[in-house]
## 1
Amino acid sequence: MSERPTVEAYKKNIQEGKFRALKCSSCGAVITPPLGTCYNCGGNKMEWTNVSGKGKLVSFTVIHVAPDEFAPEVPYIVAIVELAEKSRVTARLAGFDPLKPEAIKIGIPLVLGYEKGKSGKNYLSFRPA
Ligand SMILES: [Zn+2]
């Protein structure tokens, strides 16, 4: 019942559409993606925590040349999103034309969703709130 937080379990949760973050048991900092050590206090005890799925856009880039696995999906947008819980995640950005990046504004509110790529994998994906 006490499933130990691991990178594998974190990825498996995303594949199942159940994104969860880790929380430092010592200071409560929310950590994504999973690390062995808390970047706030250096603690190494982590537990699972649910997140609101709300965040804001910090940065993004448009991918035109992708690894083989994702090549059929170009162009696509990869964003860095700051969660309401203050942790940052890298995810796909949906709801915009990757060929019109000038329409994307830094700081816009986003909500978490999922996107199934042509590779058959589920990705974390955010779209405008
Ligand atoms: Zn901590």
## 2
Amino acid sequence: MAITLFPRLGASRRAGDPVPAPGDARPGPETTGRTAAPALLVEGVTKRFVVGREHRVVDAIRDVSLTVDRGHIYGVLGANGSGKSTLIRLVSTLLTIDAGRVEIFGHDIERDEMAVKRCINRVSVDAAFFKKLSPYENLAFAARLYGLDAGVARRESARILGRLGIAEKRLGQPTEQLSRGMQQKVAIARALLTSPMLLLLDEPTTGLDPRSKVDVQVFIEDLRDTHDAAIVLTTHDLDEADRLCDRIAVLDGGRVVADGTPAELKARVARERGEPPTLESVFMAYTGRSLDEDVEEGEAEEAGA
Ligand SMILES: Nc1ncnc2c1ncn2[C@@H]1O[C@H](COP(=O)(O)OP(=O)(O)OP(=O)(O)O)[C@@H](O)[C@H]1O
Ligand SMILES: [Mg+2]
């Protein structure tokens, strides 16, 4: 079933057209007179942390390049510590890049940070709420921060939360009484209030029960199909990546070790290595480990140490 989250973003809009948003005065993406810029361009990006009293160097992201097209779901796969969250935080301007460049709909994230912030929203695995407030109140608070009309925000909230399988009666009780799955849905609903053109989801389904996981996955697919939003998501779940993602990048030790469509990657691993055409084989072939193995202590740090 298709959903219409943002009625003004009609299906008649051509892919690549600037995306208007309800009541939003943000500048349009830089598309006039030339080919539409991709939703996200990451080129040669590097991020290094220096930690502890011994000034240990951690190369969290190393020379990463990738392109996310409009209307696509792009999956970033990687074991614990491979750099997924760091990449998401760099793209969402929460961290500064050490080298390389990032553009969002043609806007450089360093030179044009305000325009970028209006185009994106991020949901992290540990989304924060006012725990004593209800989902409605949390969303109303976010809406006010973003300057959205209270009535419109309330209607949109009810619609989005309903689509995510949250019953009306749950919307008024304190958020802390909701399950983690429910809370994750509320976090996604909150991010959607601003009609982001690029939605960054850091492990949107990790820790959810199977039913909530499917609800959120279906919702993400519907979003791509009806809103024409570009979505970047990180995941530990290969089946999820296979099902949802138009393209995938596999991160290992901060580097992209493979990228392509799931079908391309599976065909490549079968052709070149004689492995079964599954994303498990792809992950094992390019990282040398299975997805649930943690990166060894110290492994991520070795380059700069
Ligand atoms: N703020 C920080 N300061 C110092 N080191 C950091 C910081 N953030 C991340 N790191 C380090 O960078 C590396 C990549 O971490 P990151 O959180 O991006 O991995 P991840 O792929 O998201 O892992 P997970 O699957 O556990 O969420 C790790 O070695 C981590 O310890
Ligand atoms: Mg992470």
